[in-house]
């Protein structure tokens, strides 16, 4: 479960549908951000227009994962890049925790099967 601003959104990276949706949305997000910055970030610096564009890309990422319009409730400030970056980081951290927990469970099962 992903929690943001006291709201909970279903997220289980070990669910095949979630993993597929996340993988597809992740590719769109990072390809879009990279392309935008390569074309528009003068000397690596983001402008106000860039923040608006990149906030839109992050909003699309969360809307794809959690449902159309969800980003509007997740981020009350329309173009707050800081909040969006924190949310992306938190979601990636959750994904990592879920995958690590799964790997540990599989390892524990293997030890049980082998009688360790």
Please tell me what the overall shape is: elongated
Count of distinct structural domains? 1
Assembly type: single chain
Classification by helices and strands: mainly alpha
- Give the neighbour order of strands across the main sheet: 1-2
Q: Distance N terminus to C terminus?
A: 32 Å
- Please tally the helical runs, counting DSSP H or I stretches of 4 or more residues: 4
How much strand content do the residues show?
5-15%
Unreliable stretches (pLDDT < 50, length at least 5) are none
Q: Percent of residues in helical segments?
A: over 70%
Mean pLDDT: 93
For the secondary structure, the number of strands is 2
Alpha-carbon Rg, integer: 17 Å
Helix-strand string: EEHHHH
Summarize the biggest pleated sheet. Answer: 2 strands, antiparallel
Written overview of the protein:
This protein has 116 residues and is mainly alpha-helical. It has one domain (2-114). It contains four helices and two strands, in the order ββαααα. It has a two-stranded antiparallel ribbon with strand order 1-2. A hairpin with a 2-residue loop joins β1 and β2 (7-9). α2 (48-66) packs parallel to α4. The model has no long low-confidence stretch (mean pLDDT 93).
